[in-house]
Specification:
about 550 residues, about 40% helix
């Protein structure tokens, strides 16, 4: 399927990108059926849908990287579309600054041709005429400022100036992600398409990207499992359901809460239509007031105020039933950590760590180095001996642990029922109904519970690990990057469950909403000691005194 050019006016507003009669089918499975949807300038659309609904496929189709079975994609004539590159090694042979400039292919091709002509030994009159024409085009595209614009983007994304003229192959994976992000943003593209743009970005870079996109005047289409990011940048949520795509005004939280409200109303047979309408209107008014504090306050507030309550529909999403019960309450002694230090291959990742956990603390464990966090969890869970110092769990505590890497749990080719049976107590391991109950809560019902454990997707494996943790009924939960591989429905259900958990929680996550809604205490691990504060995550990350302390402890 090729791009065609079309200028469409609706109420005197130009539609930047239009998808008409789109259908996609893989074998007997229909992914999209006769989808008709448009994307307009000044808006950011968050594409959501259950795992396998076709979010990434849709982005590939509208960016021209994949063919549909039928239908058309129309991009307004003369407009430029940019895509965040997913292959992190695609530009390993290129200079970093050139990689960013390649985000505007036309401009880069003009620049390359000019450079090649200037490099010729026998420069002819025809070459001079060609260079003159190229210079006019280059100036019209803002080419003379291109290098400084690209350098500014790189610096804002944490790539220091001394690296700008080195090869992409000299960078690590996380740095490459930032360069590719700069490439996608370069030159103010008319349509910007991004699939999971926050992956491998740290907190400060994500905040910069949120601010950038919140003020971006062109069209943005994004797939992300980061709810804070979707809430910060999206003016619309585009929901993929039943092979269709529908736009809803507002951000992810508005879509989620309004769809849940509509679902509850659908079951309230005795409530009058007038009462339901009033409830919806009051919900819109409350949310509109909260939106006034957001980064995109003006545009999003107007959209929600104009929203027709008939647009609020219940979602067909299935949310796992995640419930963490405790077999017994823990006593006052939870965990004491005394002068703990951890290292890998002689490199000290954290040092001189002291703290005591209080009962019902919900702690966000944080470090600039994710290896330090994983090692810390492995140590206190008993999985690693690479440490000095001491730690002691209270005698009334029981721990359930979700490591960030749990592949070794799924090597055997056994059914999910038998997989979960391995972790059941003696009196429970023969109770298949009991085991299926925990799997069913995580959406493995019927024959799904007989799937082989070694062929599961990443998200299915995490849901199995959560089944295992629920069955343990521990009073202390250890979670290292629990949202990895999960869809938005599972992430939302897990977040809600952990907020209601009555025990003690230690959690490390790149999901800002998790950190902000769960943590009442932040413990940061550094090679030069610990920073320990009772405060919210956002307060911690924006506190100037904390920033100064972090700088001192990281450079000792």
């Amino acid at each position: 399927m090729r791009f065609k050019s079309l200028i469409v006016y609706v109420c005197k507003k130009i539609i930047m990108l239009t998808v008409s009669n789109l259908s996609v089918q893989f074998g007997k499975r229909v992914l999209f059926d006769d989808v008709n949807i448009s994307f307009t300038p000044g808006n950011c659309y968050g594409i959501i849908g259950a795992n396998g609904a076709g979010k990434s496929t849709f982005l590939k189709i509208i960016s021209g990287k994949q063919e549909a079975n039928s239908g058309s994609v129309f991009l307004e004539h003369g407009k430029r579309l940019s895509v965040l590159e997913q292959n992190h090694n695609a530009y390993d042979g290129d200079i970093i600054l050139d990689t960013v400039l390649k985000g505007n292919k036309v401009l880069f091709d003009v620049k390359t041709e000019m450079d090649n002509l200037y490099a010729k030994e026998n420069f002819t009159d025809e070459d001079g005429d060609r260079v003159g024409a190229l210079q006019v085009s280059y100036e019209e595209m803002g080419g003379w400022n291109a290098d400084s614009e690209a350098a500014s983007l790189l610096s804002n994304l944490g790539i220091p100036e001394q690296l700008h003229n080195t090869l992409m192959s000299d960078l690590d994976g996380k740095q490459k992600v930032r360069v590719l992000l700069a490439q996608a943003l370069f030159g103010n593209p008319d349509v910007l398409i991004m699939d999971e743009p926050t992956n491998d970005l740290d907190y400060d870079t994500i905040m910069w990207l949120e601010d950038f996109l919140a003020n971006y005047e062109n069209t943005v289409i994004v797939v992300s499992h980061d709810r804070h990011f979707l809430d910060s940048v999206c003016t619309h949520i585009s929901d993929i359901d039943f092979g269709k795509i529908k736009h809803y005004s507002g951000n992810y939280t508005f879509w989620y809460e309004s769809s849940q409200l509509a679902l509850r109303q659908r079951t309230q047979q005795n409530k009058k239509a007038e009462e339901k309408k009033k409830e919806l209107e009051e919900f819109i008014a409350r949310f509109s007031a909260n939106v006034a504090k957001s980064k995109q306050a003006t545009s999003r507030k107007k959209m929600i105020e104009r929203l027709d309550i008939e647009e609020i529909k219940p979602s067909s999403r299935r949310y796992p039933a995640i419930i963490f019960d405790q077999e017994r309450d823990a006593g006052d002694q939870i965990l004491s950590v005394d002068n703990l230090s951890g290292s890998i291959s002689g490199e000290v990742l954290f040092n001189e760590i002291y703290f005591n956990l209080a009962k019902k603390d919900k702690v966000i464990i944080y470090s600039k180095d994710t290896r330090a966090v994983s090692l810390f969890y492995d140590i206190i869970s008993g999985a690693s001996q690479s440490y000095t110092g001491k730690f002691n769990w209270g005698i009334t505590t029981t721990q359930a642990y979700l490591p960030s890497d749990h592949e070794f749990f799924f090597h055997d080719s056994i059914s999910l029922v038998d997989w979960l049976r391995q972790y059941a107590k003696k009196e429970e391991e023969k109770e298949e109904v009991f085991l299926r109950g925990f799997l069913g809560k995580m959406l493995f019902s019927g024959d799904e519970a007989l799937k082989k454990s070694n062929v599961l997707s990443g998200g299915e494996k995490v849901r199995c690990m959560l089944s295992k943790m629920m069955m343990q009924r521990a009073n202390v939960l250890l979670l290292n990057e629990p949202t990895n591989h999960l869809d938005l429905e599972s992430i939302t259900a897990l977040n809600n469950s952990l907020k209601n958990f009555k025990g003690t929680l230690l959690c490390s996550t790149s999901d800002n909403t998790f950190s902000q809604t769960l943590g009442n205490r932040i413990i940061e691990l550094t090679p030069n000691g610990v920073i320990d504060r009772y405060m919210s995550f956002d307060e911690y990350m924006t506190d100037q005194k904390i920033k100064e302390l972090q700088s001192k402890m990281r450079i000792k």
